[in-house]
Write a structure and sequence with these properties.
The chain is mainly alpha-helical. It folds into 2 domains: 24-162; 176-266, no CATH class. It has helices spanning 13-19, 26-52, 72-91, 93-117, 129-147, 178-195, 201-210, 216-237; strands spanning 63-65, 68-70. A two-stranded antiparallel ribbon has the order 1-2. It is elongated and about 85 Å long.
Length: 266
């Protein structure tokens, strides 16, 4: 009976992109990334104008800036938040979305707290009522931008969050170096050779060792370790690392350890 092979194939970023529907997530990612950048730029302008006004660092009355009140501490915090948003947008839209979902509630919390301490010595950020309104608007805007296309019962059809990537579970197991890619090629060749009964003793031993493992990264690691050990042994003995010694045909009905799928008899 013919034996069906179920060998893993190497997935690359290029093949993943080619299988992905065109423009999937472009709009969602653009909104999240551009939104984070625009909010960051406004905060930077507010902070720079505050620094230029010659404000004191901990002045509770503050100095008027863009219709709001500010001091040195508030301007410094605005710069920090702006840099965080810019760094998140540069890292990627998913990161920008997560950061905005965290900063949004913090802005709303700040608005609530400072609405209570306005006019007291605890008003360390020199908030006025206009600052409270501004914090509420920015907090809601960050929540809206961060959640756009990501949170909701009816996500847009082009939202990448509505179409989880098929490669998500394997992203960390893809080969990251040329040596790992070569090892996976050798692994596939050895598995084919074992099924076709043309494997060498070294190939059989490595495939048998990999059969005890479950993840792609672990199997690749074991293959590379055994390959390195065989090479060291060959250098010491002055022989070949992979003698071409065909294995005997297994008896009918015997299930080989690396056959994870299917019940075909050899």
């Amino acid at each position: 009976m013919a034996q069906r092979l179920h060998l893993p194939h190497r997935r690359t970023a290029g093949t993943a992109r080619s299988e992905e529907p065109p423009h999937l997530g472009d709009r969602v990612y653009a909104v999240q990334r551009v939104g984070a950048v625009l909010v960051a730029l406004f905060l930077l302008v507010f902070a720079l104008l505050g620094f230029a006004s010659g404000q004191e660092f901990l002045s509770t009355p503050g100095e008027p800036v863009l219709g709001m009140s500010s001091n040195g501490l508030l301007s410094t915090l605005s710069v920090v938040v702006a840099l965080v948003l810019l760094a998140a947008a540069a890292h990627g839209p998913r990161t920008a979305s997560s950061v905005m979902l965290v900063l949004g509630p913090l802005f709303l919390l700040s608005a609530g707290v400072h609405a209570i301490v306005i006019g007291t010595r605890l008003n360390w950020l020199a908030f006025s009522f206009s600052n409270v309104i501004f914090s509420v608007i920015v907090g809601l805007l960050l929540l809206l931008l961060g959640a756009y296309g990501r949170i909701g019962g009816h996500l847009p059809p082009d939202s990448p969050y509505a179409h989880p990537s098929a490669d998500a579970d394997y992203a960390d197991e893809l080969p990251g170096t040329a040596e790992e890619a070569a090892a996976e090629d050798a692994m596939r060749e050895a598995e084919v050779a074992v099924v076709q009964h043309t494997a060498s003793a070294a190939q059989y031993a490595r495939v048998h060792a990999m059969a005890q493992l479950h993840t792609r990264a672990e199997r690749r690691r074991v293959w590379m370790e055994l390959e390195a050990a065989d090479e060291r042994r060959a250098r010491q003995d002055g022989g070949s690392t992979d003698p071409a010694v065909p294995l005997p045909h297994p008896r009918g009905g015997r299930r080989l350890p690396w056959h994870r799928i299917g019940t075909g008899r050899l």
